Amino acid sequence: MPPVFDSSKVTVIFVLGGPGAGKGTQSAKLVDSYKFCHLSAGDLLRAEQVREGSEYGQLIRTCIREGTIVPSHVTIKLLQNAMTAVLAERSGSGDGWNDGRGRFLIDGFPRNIEQAKSFDDTICLSSLVLFYDTSEDVLIRRIIERSKTSGREDDNLESIKKRLRTYQKDTMPVIDEYKSKNKVKTIESSGSIEEIYEDTVKIIDKLFTPPSEIAN
Length: 216
Ligand code: UDP
Ligand code: MG
Prior knowledge:
Helix content is 55%, strand content 13%. By secondary structure, it is an alpha/beta fold. A five-stranded parallel β-sheet has the order 2-3-1-4-5, sandwiched between helices.
């Protein structure tokens, strides 16, 4: 069976990096300029966790607290459903969303090799990985700061340590695998949000011209 979405029309960019690396922040900044749809796998899981009638609520809660990876079929289905809905909703709106075309930033996914393979084979072949790279010290410091306001059950030192372990063990191999396919753009991300965004834009500019400039 071919993938659900045709990668010549639907562009998927994965956004990876440790917890607190700035994946969500940078993705949100890219949305306006390039008309991306930003999907955060973690946010989709948190929404499913509290959805009335979900059979996965308890499983998701436990995985998130323990910093482990929710079974792939759950996350992949949530991503597929979200992509289908957004493609229908934005169809014909222009800015890269005509004729079944679309462009997605998928943040915090894939978190292990099996998810990467399964998504590329069955949902949509991804075209690029933006990899936000910084030290564990920086990651821990940022999440402790974020914990003051995030309300996230996994923004505490114990969960952070578990998340970092999962990241090293399961997610770094994904980055290495895509590196071997020349699909990774690494962005040093210890600096300020603005500095990191400047480096991000340089990479994305080479792929897409912001729609506002097409008309000129
Ligand atoms: N998670 C998962 N599969 C995914 C993405 C997230 O199981 O594809 C779970 C995992 O337990 C992870 C948590 O959701 O630790 C939070 O992920 P998120 O990406 O929101 O955290 P971040 O890395 O941005 O801090
Ligand atoms: Mg995030």
